[in-house]
Amino acid sequence: MNRDASIKAFEEAQRLIPGGVNSPVRAFKSVGGTPIFITEGEGAYLSDVDGNRYVDFVQSWGPLIFGHRDETIEKAVIEAVKHGLSFGAPTQAETDLAKLVVSFFDSIDKVRFVSSGTEAVMSAIRLARGFTGRDDIVKFTGCYHGHSDSLLVQAGSGAATFGNPSSPGVPADFTKHTLLATYNDIESVKKCFADSKDIACVIIEPIAGNMGLVPADKEFLAQLRELCDANGSLLIFDEVMSGFRASLYGAESITGVKPDILTLGKVIGGGMPVGAFGARAEIMAMLSPDGPVYQAGTLSGNPVAMAAGLASLTKLKQNAPVMAVLEARAKRLVEGMREAAKEYGIIMQTDVRGSMFGFFFNEKPVKNFADAAASDAQLFAKFHSGMLDEGYYFACSLYETGFISTAITDEMIESTIEATKRVFKAITNG
Ligand code: KE4
Q: In whole numbers, what is the pLDDT of the chain averaged over residues?
């Protein structure tokens, strides 16, 4: 497949933008090769500057559940643009989207919109600290919650639960209140509560999508809920990625465990920059201007973004059964991939939650980040590159999740499976 124009575009971009990209994962560092420069998306497809076309299983990392250029969303955005781009003043569209978002979740009474998932989580953490009057937070190795300082934390030395900065530029003081636990391991959380009597919140991706797709065990979430209640700490579900992707009604509807604060993003913006955090009224009452916890944003609740989100979520609400169709397609895809791999002696672990699918080249089930990190990264890179050459755009990291959009048909799923057979054959010289 010819990639000359992408190579040229990437060379120029690297002279002006760090790594040539505006978000690191896009640089293809973990899979090698040149990132594809996109000219447009249409339905299930992405087209690149060399005129190649790909079935898109990334969908901008989750937002585009209806595929590219969904006509309902596009019409709503064009209509909104005709009335102005931004006002920095309240609009009915914000109230309408807030009403719609709240209607999907038993756990929240109110919601505040921001412009990214990072902002939503950063604000949710501050809200939890303000509400409880405590400073410490617990997060899980392998969960990603955006790039705010106190969440860029890696495991400390030995059995220490307090983490260290995972990035230069984050002072150790900024992470000394962040404790790290192991996903699906309640004993590691109990140790955090033993090490700190000042825990404001535990934050988790209840359906983790940033170590690959690794859903939390229901029992583990229930025990997490009990621990938070017993210690007066808040439980934050970060569903920026899994929200409206794993289920229309949140992880709470799948697991029966309700969070105190919920963060959302991606799908709720329909492809435009929207993040959100919500909670029951007594918690949200702490937020400025009602309460003392400050949080703000010039483009928060931007009317064009609200129009895209409203169109996206309204369409989902009106077509709720589509989630089952997406899940069936995701299951068929990973089942077909697993069978294709097996023909060439390759063992895959796979999982699906709604329209989210994940796979690991790993002989053992993946329950946490250490398991995920033991997967065959080289094989993943070869698979990614082979599928790209076949015209299928998979996430460019084994620590990401794949998505099915309504634009991806059963026929496309079958052709993808056929392509994986050719790729596994080539990789193994089968
Ligand atoms: P953003 O700031 O990227 O909108 O959201 C941060 C975030 C928060 N919480 C969860 C669970 C998330 O998955 C994310 C962002 N997801 C990544 C994909 N792994 C965005 C892609 C990127 O970083 O470019």
A: 97
